[in-house]
Amino acid sequence: MITKYHRPLLLADAIDLIAQPNTTIIAGGTAVNAGTDSTPLVAVDLQALDLSGIESDGDVVHIGATTRLQDLIDSDQIPELLRDLARREAPNTIRNVATVGGTVGTADPESELLAGLLAYGAKVTLARSGSQTEQALDDILDDPQALAGAIITTVTIDTAGVASAERTGRTPMDRPIVMAVAFHGNDGFTRLAMTGVAARPVIVDPGGITDLRPPSDFRGSSAYRRQIASVLAGRVLANSRGGE
Amino acid sequence: MTVDLTINGAAHSLECEPRETLRTVLRRAGFYSVRYGSDTGETGAAAVLVDGRLISADVMLAVQADGHEIETVEGLTEPGQMDPIQQAFIDTGAIQSGYSTPATVLAAKALLASNPDPTEDEVRDALSGILDRETGYLRPVHAVLRVAAIMRGEDPENIDVTHLDELVGGDGTHRDRDNLGAIAPRVVLSDDVPRTRVVGQPEPKTDAVKLAKGNPAFTDDIDLTGTLIAKVLYSPHAHAHILSIDDTAARALPGVHAVLHHGNVERVRYASGGQSYPNPLPYDQVSFDNKVRYVGDRVAAVAADTEEIAKAAIELLDVTYEVLPAVFDENEAIADGAPVIHDEPDMEGAEDPSRNLVHHLKADTGDIEAGIAAADRVFEQTFRVHQVQQTPIEPHIAIAAWDSDERLVITSSTQVPFHVRRMVAPLLGIPVKQIRIIKPRIGGGFGVKQEMLIEDIVGHLTIATGRPVRLELDREEEFVSSRTRHPQTITYRTGVRSDGKLLAQEMRIVANTGAYGTHGLTVQMVSGLRGLSSYNCPVKSFDCRVAYTNIPVPGAYRGYGAPQALFALEVHMDDIAEALGLDAIEFKRLNWTQVGDPLDIAQQLGEGDQDASTMPLVTSSGLEEAVLQGKRAVDWDRRNDPSWKQPEDRPNIRRGIGFAMAMHGTAIPGLDMGGASLKINDDGSFNLLVGATDLGTGSDTVLAQMAAEVVGVSTNDVIIYSSDTDMTPFDTGAYASSTTYISGMAVKRAAEQVRDQICDRAALDLGVDTSEIELHDNAAWAPDGRSVTLETIALSTLHQEGQHQIMANASYVSPESPPPYAAQFAEVEVDIETGQVTVIRLVMAVDCGVPINPVTASGQVEGGMVQALGYGHCEEMVYDDDGHMVNAAFGPYKIYRADEMPALEAILVQTMEASGPFGAKAIAEIPKDGVAPALRCAIADATGVRINDIPFTPERVWRALQDA
Known about the structure:
Chain A has about 240 residues and is an alpha+beta fold.
């Protein structure tokens, strides 16, 4: 429960504020504000920090952390496939305020957009007191403490390549039970990412799908998820390579 | 703290707490169009524009919006004006309950501001954040496309009623589907239907203006000074004794005004289902019990100054439970050794509580074993149908207050205000005459509000505190503590002659009524009635055991036992046809009921007081025509094209089309009663008062049309008011597909009396015989063309000569229940590698008699099909081993949104039902009946796989494919 609210104007101030105990970052706020946690929290709203915007440097695209998901969808600098994944992330009432940084920070275990960013080899720029570092998205998702004391400023992807995504869900826009996205870089390297096969969106070794131990829930048992993971991975790998 | 917002162009400085959402603050500032659907943003009922972007105001803090520009629908127009977007919503019939219409209008505004020429997909994306349980999204989407076209100066798509040619006996060379507008109501006329002026017209809804504009109209919009907020403590256990409740700390919390539980509330037995007197047994509930029987059962309630204090008080209640073993499955519950759920000595009316057996229903029309023995082939099949929730976007909400006469006024989002008044009185210990129930506009009901669910809580709390008390369920509470659809295990055994004629059909059900009986008897009676009425068969047998379990309570849900039964029946019939090598439609046609056929099982399974000496017969049926229309619309013959069924470029895809026929009832004969009162005003307009409760279906409009037809005025000359136990005549309420037929006949009869009074006066004025007078165009006309206006007659009778109030009351109860019929088609694609079923198209051609309003009738079919699609395809209430629902939120509980919909088409096939008002039969529930079986038969057509459990989720279908 938010009991105090800050809207810092400077990144340094924001970093100082989140160093205090019991703070929470509000990028778009859709996840934080939907929470039912009754712990008193101090909100640090990033909206005034000017972290929004999309810039291209050749095939490399830098996405500001408070870029809204809708802005991704509307940007012709973002590959079509990622725009579609952003659209699938949430309905428009949410993605008009939810942000790319917030998507990374809240790390929804079934986020298709995160899987897409993983496949595109996303790197995340983190600002801390006096330092700026870049970390692979995969490492951040792996480490619950990776974002401690940090503010995400940019998510960077290299778009030189072909990508393909496939999913299985109850309905066309449902959060998929399993989703696979493959990116085949112009350098010949292929990266496969999936949701629904682990506790978070993960990069998967195309040869290791049968070793996956997916979680079970009412929408799909572990065994079923493993089976369709193979099917979907096979499709996206073929599609992304076929697109060369 | 203070936030500075520009709201609809005006600067506002508003006080708020940092935790408060933009929705809360906007509503407190009087912007009532911003509505509650949940706390997590996914319903979109609270969507507003922030700097021109559509955003769910329930997941944005007011402080986040500080300094920004907010637009709500209140800012679109002044009173008396209408924005073109709102007008398009009205013109297309895009508004049903209207609860989320303001948000949808804003979505359109935001889209059109940036994209004046959107595609349908772009419109659907723009509406993707606003869940709609009513319209199926078809009309809202086309409302946006329409206004976009108009704003571009182009001709919008045709939305006029389109008459399709009759296909039965036709020559097959029809061009009537060319250039058919997507939402133009399709009507197949019947030439025995008398001509009418107002009835049969696509009149705009009488409540459309207030709904389109977001005016305060719902229970939540009532703001009484000093209102306390109620919260309920729900059981965390599926089955437990409450050993003690220590409420000391809760009572001591400043701001808490009352804490109620079994220790301080009188124990009065009741059944919560909103039904006619005497309520069906068992009486197995009390306001607060010393035992809980499901996760979500009531334990205690508090009233406090604020929601936060009320929640804190709930947390402070110290309850000691003795947790008991629980049982969730209906078959296990009635087996030996199951935990006994109702062991209290004062419960009344269950068959055998010691075995969790609530009812054991039996009916037959002959010796089933002899019938089976005489058959050439016998087929037996068992089905499991699951539990789903109605999920109106407006949850249950009620406000109680003492009025100045010290009578208790409860404003409630209820389908059954008169039942609630009668049922709540003994619980509160005050007489019926001291209670007034007001039903304002309702944001969807679908049966879940055919219940006296929370009115006793606010009543008790107002009595305890002397203050107004408001209770609104949050979304999770709506899922687990309100009402749901009954799960059933259904077995059919059918004996068939070698030529395909049915000889004997047995239906056995074990039904799950959860922790309480409520609608447990009557829903299952309807299952038997509907499950054994569609087809002629000399011997029919029904055996149904209704079990208590520890799941959240099933109750009334649109369809009321029929969707369960007709899923099993239609699938069973389809599979018999397959086994016999017959075409499924031809096999069904060989057996389905036609005009003149007996409704034999109805004599035993009808609820009301019926004349047992008279066999009810089918009096009208448009089924043959409906089947032909539906086959044509869905392009049925593609089933025979291998290249369509197995597309070459998509090797993992199989396509199929399925059919199901549906037959429903129209009201409960001999029981459902509606009343109406009509009076003339000075200007020749009329007030129509009805107890019928419009849930958003358009029933107020339909009733006003009927009155207008009879007294010769326009629909907008009839001001309808529903419903208020102090002000309007009695009506059983909105259920059992009864309003158009029963309340409509009451309106028609009242209007005919008023017409006669008008004609008497006009005859005197015009010097002709009363029988020669005709009413139309707001005047009474003599055969020679002279006329006197209704205004003149009104002014004269009210003020001048032979003064009296021209008015009449009437009521109606029907001796029969003429069945509407429908042909439902579903087209699917199945991914045979993953089991994913994608629904491409749903077509329903329905015979509802004469549709009084083809737009609202089409809307009922479109929206009903989508709810039914959820039942068959993706919705399910899921529990962990301890009985906690694991998906009590939209998303995990999946209902369709605007950007993932199959194509929808409703076709209205007229028949003249002589017993109905202007030829009408029911339409509200039959759209729920056919989709799940049609979907199942489509999957079978596509893949050969035949699945007997719903919903058809990917893993279920995949497993069936693996097993095949």
